[in-house]
From TrEMBL, chain A:
Source species of the chain: Littorina saxatilis
Cited PANTHER family: ATPASES OF THE PP SUPERFAMILY-RELATED, CYTOPLASMIC TRNA 2-THIOLATION PROTEIN 1
Record protein name field: Cytoplasmic tRNA 2-thiolation protein 1
Domain Cytoplasmic tRNA 2-thiolation protein 1 C-terminal stretches: 280-309
Top-level taxonomic group: Eukaryota
Role, per record: Plays a central role in 2-thiolation of mcm(5)S(2)U at tRNA wobble positions of tRNA(Lys), tRNA(Glu) and tRNA(Gln). Directly binds tRNAs and probably acts by catalyzing adenylation of tRNAs, an intermediate required for 2-thiolation. It is unclear whether it acts as a sulfurtransferase that transfers sulfur from thiocarboxylated URM1 onto the uridine of tRNAs at wobble position.
CDD domains: CTU1-like
Pathway assigned in UniProt: tRNA modification; 5-methoxycarbonylmethyl-2-thiouridine-tRNA biosynthesis
Domain tRNA(Ile)-lysidine/2-thiocytidine synthase N-terminal: 52-232
Keywords recorded for this protein, A-Z: Cytoplasm, RNA-binding, Transferase, tRNA processing, tRNA-binding
TrEMBL record, chain B:
Organism: Littorina saxatilis
Keyword field: Cytoplasm, tRNA processing
Record protein name field: Cytoplasmic tRNA 2-thiolation protein 2
Pathway terms, separated by semicolons: tRNA modification; 5-methoxycarbonylmethyl-2-thiouridine-tRNA biosynthesis
GO cellular component term, pick one: cytosol
Automatic annotation (TrEMBL), chain C:
Any one cellular-component term (Gene Ontology): cytosol
UniProt protein name: Ubiquitin-related modifier 1 homolog
Pfam families membership: Urm1
Alphabetized UniProt keyword annotations: Cytoplasm, Isopeptide bond, tRNA processing, Ubl conjugation pathway
PANTHER family listed in its UniProt record: RURM1 PROTEIN (PTHR14986)
Predominant location: cytoplasm
Residues carrying 1-thioglycine: G98
GO biological process: protein urmylation; tRNA thio-modification; tRNA wobble uridine modification
C-alpha cells in the first residue's frame, strides 16, 4: 500500500493537513522549513545583526522554533544573534521539568539561555498566587504576568525582538475567541505577524501559518526533545471550547485553520468604533490601555489580600481604586511633594517622585489602595526625604522599596518614565 | 507553555430562582424567559418583540414610505414570524410600505414525487394568502441559467418567477432541465460544506434575480440574531471574514442595485419561537437536502451545534457575537474592488505578501520546485482534464473571492456552474488579457503565462 | 494467535496511561485486529482515566495523531488498517501547550 511522495516520488510517510499532500520525510522537512522562511521574508520579520530572543518554554512549539530558527539563520544567512529566553512561573512539577528541557535545547543548539522568574520580577510564584486566590482566575494572572515577564526579560538582555512559537492553530483559536468575546481591539491586532511595534518590544510569530500538527510531526520524526504536560492548575474552560471547535473543523476541512486566519486578516473595523488608547502604566512604565497596567493592578490586589482586583472589565473595586488614586494624587500635589530622586538599577533608570513622606509621617504617596498611606515605622515626622530613600529592587519592575530606617517594604511613588527606556 | 492569556471569562448562566413577576409590568405571571434571565408576561413580551421589529426598520430608515419591497418566505419559523409582524403592522395601519412575498422552492434537491412537491407549495400559497400578501413563486434551479441570450434571438432572459394568486394555479415551477443541471453540479462538488455553501449563495442569487426582474430594490429576509451569530462564525470558518459585516448588517448594500434588509436581527430564535407560540403562527416543515447532513461533515451544522451549546451555558454568547460584527465595516462602496462572480461580494484576494492566501500559494509552489516534479504533476493532471479545462478553471478562480474559491475547489469542470457565473468569469479575464495584448509591446519581460495573475 | 505490537503515547497522551510512554502488548484471540477494534481495547485495558480525552465516538479525539510504523495512519487506511504482528502504533497528542 505504499504511497508515493508528491514531490520526489519516494516512499511517503506524511500527509500534510494544510494541503492534503502526501510526502516523504525529507521533502516534508524542506517544505516545512521553507514555508516558515517565506513567512519571515514576506513579513519582513528580521534585519541582519539583530539580537532575537526565542520565547522558550520547553514545549513543542518553542523547541521546534529554536531548531528551525537555528537552521534557517544559517541556511539563509539571516545574520541574527539568537538567545533562548525562558520564564519560570514557579509551578512545582510543571515548570521545573520543562525548564530542564529548555536547558537541553540550549546545549543542542548552542544558544545562550536566560531564565526570568515571577519570583524575582513580582515577588510571587504561581504556587503562592494559587494559595492566595484559589483556582478560579489563576490563569488570568499567569497570562498577564508571563507576557510582561517575557518583555522584561528581553529588555534586560537588550534584545531587539522576541519570537514566539504561536502557530496557526493558536492564532485561529484567538480569532474565534475574540469574536466570541466581542473584543474588537484584540481582533484587529491578533492576526498581525509582528505585534507591538508602537513603542513596545516587537514580537514576531514565524509559525503564524504553520499547522500544529505539522509541528508535532516535524518534532516527532526529527526526534526533537520536548516537554508536554497539562499545567497542573487546570486551564480556562472557555478557551477549551474554541479549541475543540477548531479541531472539529479541521477534521471536516483541513484548510479551515488557514481560512480562519484569512478571515481574521480580512476584517476591517468601522471608523467610528472607539478603540482603547495605548499609553504607559503610571507605575512601572509598561504599555497599557489604562492608568495602571494589569500586572500592577493585580499585584496591588495580591499584596493587599484583595485578589479580585484586576479581573473583569469595569470592576467596582477598580473604580474605587482609581478614585483613591485620584484622591492621593490631589493630596500629594497639595503638599508640594515634588522632590525627585533618581535611582539607577543595573539596566534601567527611572525617576522616582514622591518618595519622601512630605513631613507627614507617611512613606510613599501610594500607600495602598483605598487606604491612607502607611506610617513609616520610624515615625519620621519632621525628617527630610534623604532619611527615607530606599533602594529599588533590580528587577526593573514597578517598585518595591525598603525604607532605609524601618526596613518596611513600601511602594515607591510614581516614576516619571523616560519613554525610550521604559516603553517596551 | 500554557497558551492562556489575559481574558475575561463570560458570565455563566445563573439559575432563575423563583421569579414570580414580569420584569416589565411587575404584575402578571411571567411566561417567557429571554435576554439574560429576564422574565416577561405574555402582553409585555409581545410588546417587546413587536417593538424590536418596528424600531429596527424605523431607526435604520432602510425602507422608505410607499416603497414596494420583496419579502422572502421559506415556510420556517423565522420568516413565518416575519410575515406575521408585517400583517399585524398592516392591520394596525402602521405599515408604511407594501409587500410582495417570494418563496423559493428547493424541493428539486430532495427526492419527492411531483405530487408531494405540489402539495408542499400549495401549503405555502395558503399561508401567504391568509396573510394577505401577493406571492411570487420561484425555484432554486432557476438561478442555474439566468443569462440573457444573445441579441437577435428573443432578447428575454428566462423567466425567474411566476405570480400565484390561488392554490389551483400551482403547477410546480419545476424545471427539470435546470433541476438536473443543479443536481449534477452538486454531485461534482466534493464536500458537503461546499454543497451547503453553494446552495446558500445560489439562494441569494435567486432572490436578487427575482428582485431585478420585477424591479424591486429591497429584499427583506428573516435572519434572527441566532442565525446571524451562526452565519458569522461559519463565514469566519470558511474564509469569508470579509463578508461578515455585509451578512449581518440591517441594510446590506454590497450588491449595489438591490439592498437586503434584516428587520428581525435583534430577536433571537428563542424569542421568535415564543412569539409564534403566543400568536399561533404556523410554520411549514418542508424537507430539505440539509436534513441529511450532520455536524460531523458539515461546517454549518458543526458551527450551529457549537454556538447553541455555548449559548446554553453562556447566554450572552449570541449578543456578543452580533455586537462584534456590528463594529466591523468595509471600505467605501464606490472604491470597492471587483465583485466575486459567484456570490457578488467584493473580492478579498488582493492581499499583500504577508498573508494567509500567499502562504497557501507558497505551499503549492514549493511542491513544484523542480522541473521534474512539475511535469509529473502536469502529467497527472492531464489524464483527467484538458488544457482548456485548466485555463477555464484558472480564469474562474481569479474571478472568485477566497471563500467561493474554497467552495468550487476540486470542481473539475467549471462549466457546470451557473451560466451567469461562467459568463462573468470569462468576460472579466478577457478584458485583462486584452489589456495585456495591447501593452505587450511595452512589456519588457516575455511572460509566457496566459493565465492572469490570481 | 496473539498479535504482539508496540504502542507509544506522547505529546501528553501518556498522562492518560499512568505516564508510561511505551507499552508492549499482545492482542488476544485469533480474530483479525484493525485499528477500529484496537481503540476500544486500549480504552478498556490500558486507559487509566478520562476516556473522553482519548476517544470520541469510534475514533480518536480530534487533535490526536496516529502513526502506524511511523507513517501517518491516513496513508495506511485509518480505522480500517489491519494490524500486523510487531507493528508500532504511536498516538501523539497535539493538545498541550508549547
Amino acid at each position: 500500500m505504499a504511497k508515493r511522495c508528491r514531490v520526489c516520488n519516494g516512499a511517503a510517510q506524511i500527509k500534510r493537513p494544510k494541503t492534503g499532500d502526501i510526502m516523504c520525510k525529507e521533502c516534508f522537512y524542506y517544505a516545512f522549513e521553507e514555508e516558515i522562511h517565506h513567512t519571515v521574508l514576506a513579513g519582513k520579520l528580521f534585519t541582519a545583526g539583530e539580537t532575537v530572543a526565542i520565547g522558550a518554554s520547553g514545549g513543542k512549539d518553542s523547541t521546534v522554533l529554536a531548531h528551525v530558527m537555528t537552521v534557517l539563520n544559517e541556511r539563509h544567512n539571516y545574520g541574527l544573534n539568537l538567545i533562548l529566553l525562558s520564564v519560570d512561573e514557579g509551578i512545582t512539577g510543571y515548570r521545573d521539568d520543562s525548564l530542564e528541557t529548555v536547558k537541553i535545547n540550549q546545549q543542542e543548539y548552542g544558544l545562550p539561555l536566560k531564565i526570568v522568574s515571577y519570583q524575582e520580577l513580582y515577588g510571587w510564584t504561581m504556587d503562592s498566587i494559587v494559595q492566595q486566590i484559589g483556582l478560579k482566575n489563576n490563569c488570568t494572572y499567569c497570562g498577564v504576568f508571563r507576557r510582561q515577564a517575557l518583555d522584561r526579560g528581553a529588555m534586560l538582555l537588550k534584545v531587539d525582538k522576541i519570537v514566539t512559537g504561536h502557530n496557526a492553530d493558536d492564532i485561529a483559536e484567538t480569532v474565534i475567541m475574540n469574536v466570541l468575546r466581542g473584543d474588537i481591539a484584540r481582533l484587529r491586532r491578533c492576526t498581525a505577524v509582528t505585534t507591538g511595534t508602537d513603542g513596545a518590544l516587537p514580537r514576531c510569530k514565524p509559525f503564524k501559518y504553520t499547522y500544529e500538527k505539522d509541528i508535532v510531526m516535524y518534532a516527532f520524526h526529527k526526534n526533537l526533545t520536548y516537554f508536554s504536560t497539562e499545567c497542573i492548575y487546570s486551564p480556562n474552560a472557555y478557551r477549551g471550547f474554541a479549541r475543540a471547535y477548531i479541531k472539529d473543523l479541521e477534521r471536516i476541512q483541513p484548510s479551515a485553520i488557514i481560512d480562519i486566519i484569512h478571515s481574521g486578516e480580512s476584517l476591517c473595523v468601522k471608523k467610528d468604533v472607539r478603540m482603547p488608547v495605548q499609553t504607559t502604566c503610571s507605575r512601572c512604565g509598561y504599555i497599557s490601555s489604562n492608568e495602571l497596567c494589569k500586572a500592577c493592578v493585580m499585584l496591588e490586589g495580591l499584596n493587599k489580600g484583595r485578589p479580585r482586583l484586576g479581573i473583569g472589565k469595569t470592576h467596582k473595586e477598580r473604580r474605587l481604586f482609581n478614585e483613591e488614586l485620584a484622591r492621593q494624587a490631589a493630596e500629594a500635589a497639595a503638599t508640594n511633594c515634588n522632590e525627585t530622586t533618581t535611582t539607577t538599577t543595573t539596566t534601567t533608570t527611572f525617576t522616582n517622585s514622591k518618595v519622601c513622606c512630605g513631613g507627614k509621617g507617611a512613606c510613599g504617596s501610594m500607600g495602598g489602595s483605598g487606604q491612607a498611606p502607611e506610617m513609616c515605622g520610624s515615625n519620621l515626622q519632621s525628617k527630610s526625604e534623604s532619611d527615607c530613600v530606599g533602594s529599588v529592587s533590580p528587577s526593573g519592575g514597578g517598585g518595591v522599596a525598603e525604607c532605609a530606617n524601618s526596613l518596611k517594604k513600601v511602594r515607591i511613588g510614581v516614576p516619571t518614565a523616560k519613554p525610550n527606556l521604559l516603553e517596551f | 507553555m500554557c497558551s492562556v492569556q489575559e481574558e475575561a471569562i463570560p458570565q455563566q448562566l445563573n439559575q432563575l430562582t423563583g421569579k414570580l413577576q414580569c420584569v416589565k409590568c411587575r404584575r402578571d405571571v411571567p411566561v417567557v424567559v429571554t435576554r439574560v434571565n429576564d422574565a416577561f408576561c405574555q402582553d409585555c413580551f409581545l410588546v417587546y418583540a413587536v417593538h424590536k421589529f418596528r424600531s429596527a426598520i424605523g431607526k435604520s430608515k432602510v425602507i422608505v414610505p410607499k416603497e414596494h419591497v420583496l419579502v422572502a418566505y421559506s415556510g420556517g419559523p423565522a420568516s413565518s414570524a416575519l410575515l406575521h409582524f408585517l400583517q399585524e403592522g398592516k392591520k394596525e395601519g402602521k405599515l408604511r410600505f407594501t409587500v410582495t412575498v417570494v418563496h423559493i422552492d428547493e424541493l428539486a434537491l430532495v427526492s419527492v414525487s411531483d405530487k408531494e412537491r405540489q402539495e408542499k407549495v400549495q401549503e405555502v400559497v395558503e399561508i401567504v394568502q391568509q396573510r394577505g400578501f401577493p406571492l411570487l413563486l420561484t425555484s432554486l434551479e432557476c438561478a442555474m441559467d439566468m443569462v440573457k441570450p444573445e441579441a437577435g434571438e428573443s432578447s428575454q432572459a428566462p423567466e425567474m418567477c411566476k405570480e400565484v394568486t390561488s392554490e389551483k394555479e400551482v403547477d410546480a415551477l419545476a424545471n427539470p432541465d435546470k433541476g438536473d443541471k443543479l443536481k449534477k453540479l452538486l454531485d461534482s462538488l466534493p464536500s458537503i460544506s461546499a454543497k451547503e455553501e453553494f446552495i446558500r449563495v445560489l439562494r441569494n442569487q435567486v432572490l436578487l434575480g427575482v428582485a431585478r426582474e420585477r424591479g424591486f430594490t429591497k429584499v427583506v429576509v428573516g435572519d434572527t440574531a441566532t442565525a446571524l451569530s451562526v452565519r458569522i462564525m461559519t463565514d469566519m470558518a470558511k474564509g469569508k471574514g470579509s463578508q461578515v459585516s455585509f451578512d449581518t448588517t440591517i441594510g446590506d448594500k454590497r450588491y449595489g442595485d438591490v439592498m437586503v434588509v434584516r428587520p428581525i436581527r435583534d430577536l433571537n430564535m428563542k424569542e421568535v419561537e415564543a412569539y409564534n407560540r403566543l400568536q399561533n403562527v404556523e410554520s411549514i416543515s418542508i424537507p430539505h437536502i440539509a436534513d441529511q447532513w450532520h455536524k460531523s461533515n458539515s461546517i454549518e451544522q458543526l458551527t450551529a451545534h457549537f454556538i447553541h451549546g455555548l449559548q446554553e451555558n453562556f447566554p450572552s454568547t449570541v449578543p456578543n457575537i452580533v455586537r462584534t460584527s456590528d463594529k466591523l465595516g468595509h471600505q467605501d462602496i464606490e472604491s470597492l474592488p471587483e465583485k466575486c462572480s459567484l456570490c457578488e461580494s467584493p473580492l478579498d484576494t488582493d492581499v499583500g505578501e504577508a498573508s494567509a492566501l500567499r502562504a497557501v500559494e507558497v505551499c503549492e509552489r514549493l511542491l513544484q520546485k523542480d522541473g521534474a516534479s512539475r511535469s509529473q504533476s502536469q502529467a497527472a493532471q492531464s489524464s483527467d482534464c484538458t488544457q482548456h479545462d485548466r485555463v477555464a478553471a484558472d480564469n474562474m478562480k481569479a474571478s472568485l473571492c477566497y471563500g467561493c474559491r474554497l467552495t468550487v475547489k476540486g470542481l473539475r469542470d467549471v462549466s457546470l456552474l451557473p451560466t451567469h457565473v461562467v459568463q462573468k468569469s470569462q468576460s472579466r479575464c478577457l478584458s485583462r488579457d486584452e489589456m495585456r495584448a495591447q501593452i505587450s509591446e511595452f512589456l519588457l519581460d516575455d511572460e509566457n503565462g496566459d493565465t492572469p495573475n490570481s | 494467535m496473539a498479535v504482539p505490537i508496540t504502542l507509544e503515547f506522547s505529546g501528553g497522551a501518556e498522562l492518560l496511561f499512568a505516564n508510561q510512554k511505551k507499552h508492549s502488548i499482545e492482542l488476544p484471540g485469533s480474530q483479525k485486529w484493525d485499528v477500529k477494534s484496537l481503540l476500544p481495547w486500549i480504552r478498556d485495558n490500558l486507559l487509566q482515566e478520562r476516556p473522553e480525552l482519548f476517544m470520541q465516538g469510534d475514533t480518536v479525539r480530534p487533535g490526536i495523531l496516529v502513526l502506524v510504523n511511523d507513517a501517518d495512519w491516513e496513508l495506511m487506511g485509518e480505522l480500517e488498517y489491519e494490524i500486523q504482528p510487531n507493528d508500532k502504533i504511536v498516538f501523539i497528542s497535539t493538545l498541550h501547550g508549547g
